[in-house]
Amino acid sequence: MNAETPQGAAGSQGRLVIRTIAMPCDTNARGDIFGGWLMSQLDLGGAVLAQQLANGRVTTVAVEKLDFIAPVKVGDTVTCFARLLSRGRTSMRLGLEAWATRHGEITTKQVARGIYIYVAIDAEGRPAPVPESARAEEI
Known about the structure:
Blueprint: E1 4-6, E2 15-21, H1 35-54, E3 58-68, E4 77-87, E5 91-101, E6 107-120
Antiparallel strand pairs: 1-6, 2-4, 3-6, 4-5, 5-6
C-alpha cells in the first residue's frame, strides 16, 4: 500500500467510518495534532463498524497496535477506515487506518494505522455473541 494517494485515500483498506477536521484545540505543545486525539478518532471509527457487525453495543477492550506514521496538522481533513480482521465468539479484531488531506492540497497521506479489539455487550454490559454473519472476508 502506498502511503500517499490522490484525494479520497484510494490506497486505504476498509470502510469509510469517520471524517473530521483537525482543530486548534486538539494540538500538542509543538502545534501538531495530539496523538491521543488521533487515537480517539480511530477508536470512534472502529466502534462504528463494530456496532454494525455486532448489531448492538460494543466496548473497546484493547489497542493491540498503533503506529503513528506522519503528523496531522491543524485544518487537515482526517478520514478513518475500518475492516474486520477476525471475529471471536464475543470479540472483533479491527484494522484501522487514518489518512489526512492537507488544506488546499490534492493528495492524501496515511498518518496512522492500528489494530483495536472490541467486544459486543448486552444491555447489562456483559459480553454478548457477535452474529455469525460478521465475517472478515466480507469487509
